[in-house]
Structures are given as C-alpha cells and as structure tokens.
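Structure tokens please, single chain.
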Amino acid sequence: MYGLITVGWHINHRESMLTCFDTPRTSLDQERCRKLLVEAFDAWKDDFDDTLAAETLTGLPNSNLKIKRNFDDPQIIYFIANLSLHANIVDFQMLAGSTRLLGRRVSNRDKAHAVARVKDWSKTESGRHAVLHSFKFLHAMLVVPQTVFDNTSDSPTITYNCRQDELNYRPWIIFLATLTIWSFTVALNPSARLEWSVSDGGDTKHKDIASYLTLYATRTAAGDFAHLKLDVGLVELLDMLHVGYEDAENDLLIEAHIRFRECRDMLRVK
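Here you go.
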C-alpha cells in the first residue's frame, strides 16, 4: 500500500511540474492512472478484510484481541491513500486560515492560488471521490463504534475526545477528513450561510451529527455531490470536534482545534 501511495504522489507531483513549465497536461492519461490506483487500493482493502475475517473463523487464541487492535488501521491507511490521490490538504489548510505551512509563512498570493485550485477541484470527479471517502471514514471512526457501544441501530449520541483516542495518529486524520468536506462545501457555495440546526439540547444535536454522517457515508458512489445538501449538519460537526480537541497537547492537534473553530465561525458569519 505504501508503494501505491508513493505512485499516487508522483502522479500528482508530475501534474504540478507540468503546470509550472506550461506544458500541456494529458489529463486523460492521469485519470486513467488514478483509476488503476483506486482499483489497487480497493483490492488491498478487500484482501485485508478477507484476512481478518479468516482469523475470526479460526478461533485461534488471542485472535479477537489482534483483530480489535488492527481493525481501524486498514481503514485509516485506505482513507489516506484515497485522500492523497484526490485532494491537496495544504490547499485546504490555507483556505481554512492557516498562516504558516511547510515551514514558511503563507502569503496572500499563496492563499489566492489555493482558493482558485480548491474551486476547480470541487467541480471534478476527484473532489467528489475525496468527499465520499471522507464521509465514509468519519462514519466508520465516529458513528460505528458508538453504535456498537450503545447496542442500537438508531442514531447514537456522538462524542469524541482526541486525548482518549488510543491511536495517536487518528485525531489528525479525522481533522483532514472533516477539512476535506468543509473545503468542498465552501468552494461550491462560498456565499452560503450555514445556520445551526434547531435542537433541544446537546444530545439531540450529536444524534443529528450521526444522521448527517450516515446519510452520505452510505452512498455507494461519489455521484454528483454538488447537488446535495452537504451544509446541513456541517456546523454542528465542526463544533463537536472543536470541543473534542480542547485538551490537545501536541502542536498538530492544537492547530486542528483552532482550524475547527475558524471553519465553524467562517460558515456562521457569512
């Protein structure tokens, strides 16, 4: 999988280099390469799932513990693979107000170019693909575990605290997935004002978040997300995660905590 991710990086890097040198891009060839990589990602994930299912059936000692420990890892790697191929996280962070990235200060020109690139990206199949996988990932990480814990098929109450996550890299990946959805929504409708949904209290609002993630995560294909109401529930999701990252200690998660607040506030004041 790591080799496949590297191939995806080189495809995107080649596209950037051709742009810098004003060389005509062969978009058809690059899309064909991307489709082949996506098929390879899917095959890797299917193979991993089949292996875990086989271990479950063997009933070997400690097999349940091993599966529990490794269950989230393939989903996280699979999501990162798709996101790296179909999205530019640095552009999203500039759009969200980050002032320093990759060791240097973000200039007004950098941000203007990032905004233009994100607008173009939001109209492509790659953009819709990245958003679909972001919804599926957030649903798998936030909704499914709580559903199992509550032992109910109804919308559970979603809570998350980055300090309590046993995987120290998952909070940052959750941030990237949420930022992808936010960037896509803002790029498609920059003048939209997203309001708080009416709720009776915190539990009701968090149940709405579960319904919001489930609604789009259960789609089987990217389709045309441009015509879907992705904004409904997004502010609540950002607010919930902003609170969940209040206890962050390392610099990356402190930055994620700030970005969640900025993204939420930018949507509310438009």
